[in-house]
Amino acid sequence: MKKIAILFLFVAFTNFLNAQSDLFLKVKKAIKENHPEVNLEHKLIAVNVWLVSNQESRDANKQFNNVYKIYEFAKLTGGLKGLVCVIINKEGDAASIILNKDGATKLIQLNNLDVPSNTVSNFVFDENGKEVYKNIPSGKIFESINKLITR
């Protein structure tokens, strides 16, 4: 009986570790609702949560913009049909002006997505919602995505 209980707990714990992120599900749903033209099938999803006052998050926007231009249709580990880069602005629609000023115009903007108030970070999810990267410094974003190229 103890072996069955231990086996059950092990299976439950394994499923918990492989569960999709709540943020991944929210982003995927918001993209499908607000940007139905964007194909998410077999693609990595990179998410950057940013603030106008946080220079690191603004620099990350610029880097994700460049990565999105280059790897949008590349064969990547975890997303064989490319990459989609999404930014979540926690300060509303007015910050879009700053985004354009920074030159990050290709990114998909989601302004009305509920994320925890203390979250200012970036994430990269594979096509199944598993976290590939988290909190990549802006100077390492290109290098990190480049490592995912399949040959």
Secondary structure layout:
Blueprint lengths: L1 H16 L4 H13 L9 E7 L4 H17 L11 E7 L6 H7 L5 E3 L11 E4 L5 E4 L6 H6 L5
Parallel strand pairs: 1-2, 2-3
Antiparallel strand pairs: 1-4, 4-5
Structure description:
There is one protein chain. It is globular, with a radius of gyration of 17 Å. It is 39% helix and 17% strand. The termini are far apart. The chain is built from 5 helices and 5 strands. A hairpin with a 5-residue loop joins strand 4 and strand 5. It has a 5-stranded mixed β-sheet, with helices on both faces. The chain is an alpha/beta fold.
Major β-sheet, in short? 5 strands, mixed
The order of strands across the largest sheet is: 3-2-1-4-5
Q: What is the CA-based Rg, rounded?
A: 17 Å
Q: What string gives the helices and strands in order? A: HHEHEHEEEH
Question: What is the first-to-last residue Cα distance?
Answer: 48 Å
Q: Which whole number gives the mean pLDDT? A: 85
- Which stretches of 5+ consecutive residues score pLDDT under 50? 11-20
Count of distinct strands: 5
Structural class category? alpha/beta
Share of β-strand residues: 15-25%
Indicate the overall shape.
globular
Give a nutshell description of this structure:
This protein has 151 residues and is of the alpha/beta class. It has five helices and five strands; from the N terminus they run H-H-E-H-E-H-E-E-E-H. It has a five-stranded mixed sheet, with helices on both faces.
